[in-house]
Specification:
two-stranded antiparallel ribbon; 8 helices; alpha/beta
């Protein structure tokens, strides 16, 4: 499996060289970048189970949503010292659940409905993160169907490749509409769309993770195409794209337990199968937070330079 790289034309969260050097110096000395510029943010987190952190202690909010107090939105809110924070991430959420209610269930028993995630947005919202796509593409279900303990089994890629490709194509206009909907409801908001992480390394690690090597490459390749679709939509619809895939290399489900950010088919940490554990959620928050901080510092430097020029 080759690591998909997002083309340079995509609008990644960037910073000036001076901000990069400053942040690198601070991180090297163990000092976190200053967060004063983010302290006034009114932050809303949208998304699916990658963002909600199911089974990662401690549970907060509706049980069916699997929302953790240590998911990346909670960790990011704490890191940025935001003024207000709303987390409406929910397991099973797809892009349609931004504007439609989501029915919840636990162990097959209905638990009621959650309001559309867009209900959390408002004109005063200044920061929005979102993670969508996995449920639109049905990737967890496909991964479950690809599980096998037979090294001679027929690859599941043959059954699912065309279906997944079609679903990703159908997802593209949906994620674009989600981004436009956020801007319409929260015109002052900085919008950060995240991708998904590194689930399984090239060739897999059969039988540690019970999926054939060719299917491991197919599954991670599908994740990478989904990430590229999110990045492309972000670039075209006034949002930033946070790449959590590249920095998570080596922390996939094949990694040693202490290095693992994503759990495999049988979790070794408190987390849902094929989902981030607490270390993963904390790491994604750090990655997103560092990128945001660099951008804020770059903007602050640019404003200072303009003021000096005017003076």
């Amino acid at each position: 499996m080759n690591s998909a790289r997002v083309p340079g034309t995509y609008r990644l969260i960037k910073s000036s060289l001076g901000a990069v050097v400053l942040a690198g110096t601070l991180l090297a000395t163990g000092i976190a970048p200053a967060s004063a510029d983010a302290a006034g943010e009114h932050y809303v987190a949208l998304g699916d189970s990658f963002a909600s952190g199911p089974l990662v202690p401690d549970i907060t909010g509706p049980l069916a949503c699997g929302r953790s107090t240590h998911n990346y939105p909670h960790e990011l809110a704490a890191r940025l010292h935001v003024a207000s924070f709303k987390d409406v991430t929910c397991s099973g959420a797809a892009t349609k659940h931004t504007t439609e209610p989501q029915s919840g269930s636990v162990l097959g028993l209905p638990t009621g409905t959650e309001p559309p995630q867009f209900d959390a947005l408002g004109p005063d919202t200044t920061l929005v993160t979102l993670t969508f796509g996995g449920n639109d593409a049905g990737l967890v279900g496909v991964a479950q169907d690809c599980m096998t303990l037979d090294p001679g089994a027929k690859p599941c890629k043959d059954r699912f490749a065309a279906q997944v490709d079609q679903r990703i194509e159908e997802f593209k206009p949906r994620i674009a509409a989600v981004l436009d909907g956020i801007h319409a409801r929260s015109p002052k908001a900085r919008v950060v769309a995240t991708g998904y992480g590194d689930y399984i390394r090239p060739g897999g690690c059969f039988p540690l993770q019970p999926v054939l090597g060719v299917d491991a490459d197919f599954l991670q390749g599908s994740v990478d195409r989904l990430n590229a679709a999110v990045a492309e939509a972000a670039a075209a619809h006034g949002a930033d794209y946070a790449d959590v895939r590249t920095p998570s290399k080596g922390h996939d489900s094949c990694a040693a337990p202490g290095d693992r950010w994503i759990e495999g088919y049988v979790p070794v940490h408190l987390a849902a199968p094929l989902h981030p554990n607490r270390q993963g959620e904390e790491s994604y928050a750090r990655i997103i937070g560092d990128q945001l901080q660099l951008q804020l510092q770059s903007q602050s430097q640019s404003q200072s330079q303009l003021q000096l020029q005017k003076g």
